Amino acid sequence: MDRRKVRIGLQVGGEVDGDALCRLLEAVAQEGSLSGACRRLGMAYRSAWALLRRAEAELGVALVERQAGGPAGGGARLTPLGEELLAGYRRLQAEAAGAVGRYFPHLVAHLKGAVGEPAPGGDAQGAGEVPGEPAGEPAREPAGDRAREAGVEQEPAPLLLATTIGPVEVGLVGALAEAFLHRTGIPVRPIAVGSGQALELGRRGRADVLLTHAPEAEEAFVRAGYGIARYPLMYNDFVLLGPAADPAGVRGAGGILPAFRAIAAAGAPFVSRGDRSGTHLKEQALWAAAGVTPGAPWYEVYVGGALGSAATVRHAARRQAYVLVDRATYLSLRAEISLALLLEGDPLLRNLFSLIPLRADRVPGAQEEKALLFCRWATGPEGQGIIAGFRPGGVPLFYPVAGGGGDAPGPVQDRPGADAGAGAAPGQPGG
């Protein structure tokens, strides 16, 4: 069985392995210290420190800064430029993963002689397209048919899942992918990005199915013909975190909109992801509903927001700022951050996650049948049961739309009003 893989390398200057550097920076952002990053990566501290020194010398900027003191005895964090470098790497990684998943199977089959010479404008042109331009490769199935006719054994092409970052960070996407592979033999390759970027990857033909939590943007995506339907998968809710001293007095605000108005009136620091993710879009909608236009000096758009909610919350904790975050991220970080949970339970804070399989007639090369199979499986008894049973440390991070093992909810346009009830925050009414 063919098991060749492509590795796309990044080089910083002439001496530094960019992939190794970005893995180290990501681990520092996640662990909050260089020693913790080394333990996470199985890397010698001396080697990590030498890699950072070489990279900073090549770039002429500091990427990591040390912190002294604190409850944990100090640590390390990325500088704004280090965060920007890592966020850019994440975006490039997402684009590259989508492009490789689309074109490499055709290239391997072609080199083996399983397919004929590519016609002008076919594989040869598509493989070299400018990143960000619409994909124009041929459908995969005919190439697979010809490969089978030629007697070439092929692994199933992976299903490309462009997914919001949070469910990947906590391990749920991996659990679903492993179970789906066991059930069907189809591998799932996650591409972890914000919801806005996941939708853009779908438009560009860089994915087969999306997992996002931006309902209005998802509806527009489906209406434009890129997606077949929205399949409600699971939900949790957003919470508002902030300094325990609560300088804006949001604890007694009585709801998220009065809380946002109080933060603005007090000029209290607030950190935003600012990356068009589902979390960022929800936050923007709440500011608009509150009648507030946030801005400097109290409102900060975090330069590393594309790294995800965990990195954003850690940054807010360092600044002792307010921040909106999904409950799963808060629960996974609460033991290590100094921020307090100040407001929860407002029905406006519900957070619905949906799957969207892409239409092959609008997105050339999209594996529509596999994507539909994954959506039906994930919203069916087995997938919903996995979500219901996913409880790291005994705490549920997400709730299945079908109640865990119930009937599959089906695409949302076949179920008028499904958004309202299925997306309600835990313990809150759907309206």
Task: Tell me what you see in this structure.
By secondary structure, the chain is α+β, with helices and mostly antiparallel strands. The chain has 17 helices and 14 strands. It has two domains: 11-78, Arc Repressor Mutant, subunit A; 158-431, D-Maltodextrin-Binding Protein, domain 2.
Give the overall shape: globular
Calculate the mean pLDDT score and round it: 79
Q: Which CATH architecture of the largest domain would you pick?
A: 3-Layer(aba) Sandwich
CATH class of the largest domain: Alpha Beta
Class by SSE composition: alpha+beta
Number of helices: 17
Q: Got a strand count?
A: 14
So, the CATH homologous superfamily of the largest domain? Periplasmic binding protein-like II
Low-confidence stretches are 114-150, 404-409, 413-431
Counted up, domains total 2
Helix content: 40-55%
Strand content: 5-15%
By CATH, the topology of the largest domain is D-Maltodextrin-Binding Protein, domain 2
Q: Compute the separation of the termini in Å.
A: 52 Å
Write down the Rg.
23 Å
Largest sheet: 8 strands, mixed
Structure at a glance:
The chain is α+β, with helices and mostly antiparallel strands and 431 residues long. It has helices at residues 18-31, 34-41, 45-59, 80-111, 123-127, 140-149, 165-169, 172-184, 195-203, 215-223, 256-266, 278-290, 309-319, 327-333, 368-378, 381-389, 418-422; strands at 11-12, 16-17, 64-67, 75-78, 159-163, 188-192, 209-212, 231-242, 270-272, 299-301, 323-326, 340-343, 350-357, 399-400. It folds into two domains: 11-78, Arc Repressor Mutant, subunit A, CATH 1.10.10; 158-431, D-Maltodextrin-Binding Protein, domain 2 (3-Layer(aba) Sandwich), CATH 3.40.190.
